[in-house]
Design a protein that fits this description.
214 residues; little secondary structure; 10% strand; 15% helix; two-stranded antiparallel sheet; three-stranded antiparallel β-sheet; 3 helices
Length: 214
C-alpha cells in the first residue's frame, strides 16, 4: 500500500500548474473575525441518527506536534459543532495525537502549549476529531457536572474555485502574516521545523472530480 501511495503521488504531481497570486482577491471581501464568527452560517449535516450533533467537517487532517521532539503527525478525524465558534474533535486513545496531548497533560500545560503554524488541512470529504480520556480527571462532588472546552487556533480555506488559491495548500498561513494571500513582502517561515512540516504533509494536490474520474 505504501508503494502504491508513493506511485500515486508521483503520477499526480508531474504536471502541476503553478498558482497565480493576487493581493486582493474578491473572495476575501467578506471576512468575519472575533465575535462575528458563526459556524452555523454554513451547512453542517447530521450524518447518522446516533451522532451527538452536526459535523462541520466530515473528514480532515489534524496535525499535532510532539512538544519535546517537534515531530509532527497527521491524523484524520471528524469535527462536531459545539457552538457558534467551537468545534469538538476526537482522537482515539493510543494514536500519536493522543500521545502528544498526554505529554502536555503530564507537564500541566494546555495542548498545544503555544500557538504555532502547524495547520489542520481540510478538504472535501475530510474530517477533524480530537479524543481524550474523560475518566482521567479527579471525581466530581455529588451534583456537579464537568464540561470540556476545545480551543482551536486555525485557518480555514475552502478547496473550491471561489476561494483564492483554493486548489492547493500554498501559500500556507502563519501567525505573523498581515493578510491572506500575503504579498511578495511576506513569506512562510523557512526554519527547519516549518520546512520539515511542509515537506512531510503539504506536498499533495486536490482537484475536483469530473465525469469519468474514478
Amino acid at each position: 500500500m505504501s508503494n502504491l501511495s508513493r506511485k500515486w503521488m508521483e503520477l499526480t504531481t508531474k504536471k502541476m500548474v503553478k498558482p497565480a497570486y493576487v493581493d486582493s482577491p474578491a473572495v476575501m471581501e467578506n471576512v468575519l473575525t472575533g465575535d462575528k464568527v458563526d459556524i452555523n452560517m454554513f451547512p453542517s449535516p447530521w450524518f447518522y441518527p446516533d451522532d451527538g450533533g452536526r459535523f462541520f467537517v466530515t473528514a480532515g487532517f489534524l496535525v499535532t506536534k510532539d512538544p519535546d521532539t517537534g515531530w509532527t503527525n497527521l491524523g484524520t478525524y471528524r469535527a462536531q459543532v459545539l457552538g457558534k465558534d467551537i468545534l469538538g474533535s476526537q482522537i482515539i486513545k493510543g494514536k500519536h495525537g493522543d500521545m502528544h496531548m498526554k505529554k502536555d497533560q503530564e507537564a500541566g500545560q494546555p495542548a498545544p502549549r503555544r500557538a504555532d503554524d502547524v495547520d489542520v488541512v481540510v478538504g472535501r470529504g475530510e474530517e477533524i476529531t480530537v479524543a481524550f480520556d474523560a475518566e482521567e480527571p479527579p471525581p466530581l462532588p455529588p451534583g456537579w457536572r464537568r464540561d470540556f472546552l476545545l480551543y482551536s487556533d486555525s485557518w480555514l480555506k475552502d478547496a473550491d474555485l471561489n476561494t483564492a488559491t483554493g486548489q492547493g495548500t500554498a501559500p500556507l498561513p502563519f501567525h505573523g502574516m498581515s493578510r491572506y494571500p500575503y504579498g511578495a513582502d511576506e513569506r512562510y517561515p523557512t526554519d527547519a521545523a516549518h520546512q520539515r512540516y511542509v515537506k512531510r504533509y503539504d506536498t499533495r494536490r486536490m482537484t475536483p472530480r469530473g465525469p469519468g474520474t474514478p
